[in-house]
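Protocol step 4 of 5: obtain the predicted structure for the target chain.
Materials: sequence only (see below). No template structures provided, no constraints applied. The aim of this step is simply to have a reference model before the mutagenesis design in step 5. Sequence pasted as it appears in the construct record:
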Amino acid sequence: MKKNVLIIGIISFIVIIAGISIPTYKIYSKVKSFDNYIYPTVKINGEDVSGKTVDEAKKLLSDKYQTPIGNKKINIKVNDKTYTINYSQIEAKYDIDKAVTDAFNYGRDKSVIDKYKLIKTPVLKSIQLSFNYNVKPIDDLISNIKKDVNKDPKNGSVTKSGGGFSITPDVDGYKLKDDELKKNIIASINGDLGQDSNVQANIEVIKANRTKEKLAGINTLVSTFSTSYGPISSPQRATNITLATNAINGLVLMPGETFSFNGVVGERTAAKGYQAAPVDIGTKTAMGLGGGICQVSTTLYNSVLLAGIKATVRMHHTIPSVYVPLGFDATVDYGNLDYQFKNTLSYPIYIEGSSANGTETFNIYSDKSLLIKTYKVVNNVDPSGKKVKVYLQTYQNGQMTANDLIANDVYPPSN
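Step 4 output (structure tokens):
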């Protein structure tokens, strides 16, 4: 009797163990069968990669996405020319490796029972491909486009011919709006499979400072001033005057631009042909290279004043000049003293200088509308003969409308 009970017990135990082990084995076996495969209902960009190995999933995605995207193009329209860059050139690619790795690892961190549930009653898992590219080829392409497009404007020029002026027209410049273009190119890049993208480049027109229309404002003589240098000049001094005058002759100054005598004439050197001639140094006169050109700056100073333009930088001599009234002079010394003025007129001016037959002359040309006003330079010398105030008077319709003090000079005693 006891023996039968023991046998029944053993049989019952075996049945129970078998009842537990067989389902467990089935669970383990099912989970084990997916060791090298992606779990069910996993999709990448909508592509079902369930039950595929890593290599199979990579090939599927590469064939569908990576190969076609490499052939996609960006067409950049620049005027009547089109520049093209392929997605392959910008190394455009999907991160397929990461997406497949994420798909394969999905559910791997779960327990065996949870993995089994995931296999038997799967829940959709969606993974998106990330997309990236190299921006440097885009920068390189834009640089090449800039070389083709960018062009500095060319100023017009004016030449005095006979009693009138001949104008060479200006030429517009162009500048690619490169920052805007780069932004638009990048905005057009995407991982969508389909048509090429088209981008329109915008170009800015750069106008020249000296346009034909502005230069047309040079049409009338508005002032002139002359001094005599023949009786007081050696051949060397006369040469210096001619050289400095020629450096200024034909200069055009636009509204708001500044003239610098030293900047235009430059350093007076023997290499340029300047010669030694008398120069005022302090209260004495000595020989110096370029002596005599203060008569050039003085003559120009007075001609410009008579056009209604005041000096911004001007110094008088320490020794009164014999070729102009007291206080009418403007001395220069390269590196030390300069004569400067700013064109305060609404029109450009053309400076014509000549030194012929012992006479130094500067003519200022601008728009005929300026002739509505005339100017006069007057001085007021005190009884000592060493102090002088200089005024620029403005007249309109025969009436003086302004009397501006422009100099208050003191000349030291000299031998």
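Step 4 remarks: The chain is about 30% helix and 30% strand. The radius of gyration is 45 Å.
Proceed to step 5.
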